[in-house]
Amino acid sequence: MGRTAVALTALFDLVVLLLLPAAMVVESATDSLDVQALGVLYASLNSPSQLSGWTPSGGDPCGDSWKGVSCSGSSVTAVQLSGLGLNGSLGFLLSDLLSLKTLDLSNNDIRETIPYQLPPNLTYLNLAGNNLSGNLPYSISAMASLNYLDLSFNNFTGDLPNSFGSLSNLLSLYLQNNQLTGPVNVLSNLSLSNLNIANNQFNGWIPQEFSSISDLEIGGNFFSNSLAPHPPPYMPPPPSRQHSTHNNTQESPNTPQGSEGKSISPDNARNKKKLTTGPLIGIVLGSTLGALCITLALILLLRNVPKGKDHSINSRNDTGRSAVGGADKANEKEMQELRVKSSSATTPVPPSDTVIVEKLHGKNVPVKRPKIPITATSYTVASLQVATNSFSQDCLVGEGSLGRVYRAEFPNGKVLAVKKIDSAAISLQEEDNFLEAVSNMSRLRHPNIVPLSGYCVEHGQRILVHEYIGNGTLHDMLHFADYSSKRLSWNARVRVALGTARALEYLHEVCLPSVVHKNFKSTNILLDEELNPHLSDCGLAALTPNTERQVSTEVVGSFGYSAPEFAMSGVYTIKSDVYSFGVVMLELLTGRKPLDSSRVRSEQSLVRWATPQLHDIDALSKMVDTSLNGMYPAKSLSRFADIIALCVQPEPEFRPPMSEVVQQLVRLVQRASAVKRRSGDELGFSYRVPEQDSSMTDISF
To answer: Which of 1, 242, 251, 589 is the most buried (most CB within 10 A)?
Structure first.
């Protein structure tokens, strides 16, 4: 009996082991990616108690019926949490909710920005009545199935992304009561039934297509007072016709239509009936005789023309076609010039249709550049002198290629940064050109870009006023001993990289035309008190048409940031910015300057020294900034190095676009979050993170 009992016990244990995996599967009925995404959302909303059943990690949203969550099978299909007093932010993992169709978080107190990572298959998105701010992310266009979008009653700023024009399934769009700016042409080709864009700062023409929208609200903006005019047809004017004396007769609904679809008044209809047979016969005979005379004349002419003249006739025809082609080329050249002029703006304002058509028809009319609204404040020289103590040395906080930067404190207590541009540093002396550049810079709106607050053009002065970011530059934080008390943790460095990558992504891929920074380096990355990065000098390249001279003195002078193609040929593109971004990432990883003559010759150029070692894990660990004291996760470090290697490739065509860099950095963060509950050894920490280092523990890479 003893042996039998032992055998039964062993058999029972075996059955339990075999059934345990199945039991674990049954225990959680919800897809693991959905669970993780909702957990991040819950934590980002500050773990509100009103969301019964929700947990920051684990749990079973579908099986346990989390508040506001609806499922189909194991997939979360709807999250409806309207009017629950929620605060916090939306997190960074919503894109993992692949089956989500409805997301309603309206009428809460959710803040910050809409993340780039959004559920790709949504059909209904409602974030109205919150405190969301910043620009609308172009990634909204990735939700191709979206048919309802409500972002009203928030604090959104900036222009509508051009990518909105690809929302082909969108039927209802509500953007009212925000601070959105610019034209709304991107919405003109959408098949909208409901559109409310009231109480914003939109400007320009009202698209003609809006007249077909059944429910339309556009009041409280700065639109022109009428619909945009239809573009005139590109064709010569029709031949003149004799107008009937009845042309002014008012048409009635029963007016008969002619063969060309034009209305015929009753009097004209009766006149047509008065044509009798006699006049008709006369018209026919006269037409026939006329045709015979023309035919005989042509025959006589052809007999008298030598055969060798055929080629000359064709030549004349070809010459005529060539002349027409030349005119077309001239017109095309002129149109290209117009496009080039408009492309200098961050958000181009097209010339009016009338001007274009008059030029196409050869009329010599002056092209008057349309005025672009400036959203920045106009300051007087006197007020800036008072705020900077007459631009005293005590208020000087920096100096760049265009001039000096001063700390300005105004009577109301507000502190701003004033950049006094050296007139010898720019070649655009005309006030209109400077104001156009100011207007374009003032329209750059991104959380990681230092905004332009104001300007001054009095008494020959050219002054720019920016928000003041007073915690120093990334360069100072990494390289100066005075900032030793503010040493950046690994997590802070990753956040700096991600924030500046998003700033460049906005300049390169959201702004139309693209804005090339041309002077991207760690001294132009300002850090606030929370160590969030803010990219400065965005759009300043427009003030220096001779950009090769300016960049050569500023970038090649320090050399370490300049891409190979610029050093060799003077060509600078958005891919050159990507290279410079890779150099800054190397600074973050190593703590070294891009060019350091104090080191041995083989280590003076950071890129040349570091690049061969980026894929060698042992060498990579020796390159890391010693001020980190080994407190970094090895896997995160390796992925960080992989991104650097892509950005600093010598061939520009092989460098990734900044949107891809952003995605890889976000993925790095997401992977770290997915394994944050593992032990330090599993993550590859050289040392366990101290409890007091909150900047490390909040992300735990």
So the answer is: 589
Q: What percent of the chain has pLDDT over 70?
A: 66
Q: How far apart are CA 232 and CA 219, in angstroms?
A: 28
**Residue closest to 54 by CA, chosen among 25, 21, 23, 88:** 88
Task: Tell me how far apart the alpha carbons of residues 564 and 570 are, in angstroms, rounded to a whole number.
Answer: 9
**Which of the listed residues 468, 484, 502 is the one where a domain comes to its end?**
468
What does the CA dihedral 26, 31, 34, 40 come to, rounded to 10 degrees? 50
Provide the angle, in degrees to the nearest 10, between the axes of the packed helices 634-647 and 490-505.
30
110 three-class SS: strand
- Tell me the CATH number at 617: 1.10.510.10
CA atoms of 425 and 210, how far apart (whole Å): 46
| Cα–Cα distance, 363 to 638 (Å, whole number) | 63
Residues 115 and 219 in one domain: yes
Q: Answer whether residue 633 is part of any domain.
A: yes
Compute the distance between CA of residue 677 and CA of residue 700 in angstroms, rounded to an integer: 9
Residues β-bridged to residue 209: none
Same domain assignment for residues 552 and 436: no
In which band, very low, low, confident or very high, does the pLDDT at 374 lie, cut at 50, 70 and 90? confident
Which residues span the domain enclosing 171?
48-227
**Distance from C-alpha of 686 to C-alpha of 636, rounded to nearest angstrom:** 12
Q: Tell me if 148 sits within 8 A of 125, measured CB to CB.
A: yes
441: Cβ–Cβ under 8 A, 6 or more apart, which residues? 346, 376, 452, 464, 538, 539, 540, 542
pLDDT confidence band for 5 (50 / 70 / 90): low
Mean pLDDT of the residues in the chain: 75
Q: Quick one: pLDDT band at residue 244, thresholds 50, 70, 90?
A: very low
β pairing state of 463-467 and 415-421: antiparallel
Integer Cα distance of 284 and 280 in angstroms: 6
Lowest-pLDDT range of 138-152, 271-285, 365-379: 271-285
Cis peptide bond upstream of 513, omega within 30: yes
pLDDT value, residue 641 = 96
Q: What three-state secondary structure class fits 464?
A: strand
Cα(440)–Cα(457) distance, integer angstroms: 16
Degrees to nearest 5, angle at CA 133 with 132 and 139? 90
Query: Are 647 and 656 within 8 A, CB to CB?
Result: yes
Number of structural domains found in the chain: 3
* Whether residue 387 is found in the same domain as residue 521: no
What pTM was estimated for this model as a whole?
Answer: 0.49
User: Does a structural domain hold residue 380?
Assistant: yes
Which of 208, 227, 246 is at the close of a domain?
A: 227
Verify that 190 and 221 share a domain, yes or no: yes
Residue 378, helix vs strand vs coil: strand
CATH number of the domain enclosing 402 = 3.30.200.20
The backbone torsions φ and ψ at residue 178, rounded to the nearest 5 degrees and listed phi first, read: -125, -160
| DSSP H or E run through 525 | strand 525-527
Contact 70, 78 (CB under 8 A): yes
Count CB neighbours of 483 within 10 A: 17
In a domain, 347, yes or no: no
Which residue carries 């009561």 as its tokens? 177
**Does residue 406 sit in the same domain as residue 423?**
yes
Reported residue count of the chain is 701
Instruction: Please give the structure tokens belonging to residue 3.
Output: 């042996």
